[in-house]
Design goal:
Blueprint lengths: L1 H10 L6 H23 L3 H12 L4 H8 L3 H27 L3 H11 L3 H10 L2
Helix pairs in contact: 1-2, 2-5, 2-6, 3-7, 4-5, 5-6
Length: 126
Amino acid sequence: SQEEDEQLAMAAAPDGDPELSYLKAHYRQLFKEAFARAMAGLAPRQRNILRHYYLDGMSIDQIGALYRFHRATAARELGRIRDALQEGTRQAMMEGLRVGPGECDSILRLIESRMEVSICTLLDST
């Protein structure tokens, strides 16, 4: 229930601001949902490249060799995939929260999201 959520937020408020802790927890959940939507929107090959890099610990050189492209192409592809994932997450959050880009960016800064941790968590669960 919302009351239980508020009590948990108050108990877990290390900075002494239970309202801020509650907002962070709420937005983190929305971020996770938006991130999952953005990840689902990637092509299977894009998800595989992320999986190789983040979960398998493959280097750019190894990914390039696997997909038969130059290491520079592999690095650019990984960058494009991360950019697409970040933008897809941002768009999904703006739609879910019905906020503009500036407010969405403020929320993302508030929750101090760490995309790499989210990538690993999502890829590991699939």
